[in-house]
Specification:
The chain is an alpha+beta fold. Helices cover 50% and strands 17% of the residues. The mean pLDDT is 88.
Length: 104
């Protein structure tokens, strides 16, 4: 039988689809939420919670107090460098929301 294409592994097919449809960048952006505690360390992670990333690269982070929001705003360039590393999707901005961490 000539011209018969062998099935490809599901992982390979999924990777091809993700790449073809431009989803890899979005997955890299979304990873910023999961890697937030490692990127900022335990002291900052204790008073913050990363919530979501928009397609344009804005990370929304809840922070417990205005004082922390001000301090973290000054640290944003260093935090962005640690979050982005060598990823395709780049977090461009951080939006700080002040309030209890258990609030959605």
């Amino acid at each position: 039988m000539t011209g018969v294409k062998r099935p490809s592994p599901l992982g390979d097919a999924l990777h091809t689809w993700i790449t073809r449809h431009g989803m890899a960048k979005r997955f890299d952006l979304a990873a910023a939420v999961a890697t937030w505690p490692d990127a900022v360390g335990p002291q900052i992670a204790a008073v913050t919670r990363a919530l979501a990333v928009t397609p344009d690269g804005t990370l929304t982070v809840r922070v417990t107090t205005h004082a922390w929001a001000t301090e973290l705003g000054l640290m944003a360039p260093r935090i962005l460098t640690r979050l982005n590393g060598a990823k395709r999707g780049r977090v461009q901005h951080i939006r700080w929301l002040v309030g209890p961490l258990d609030q959605p």
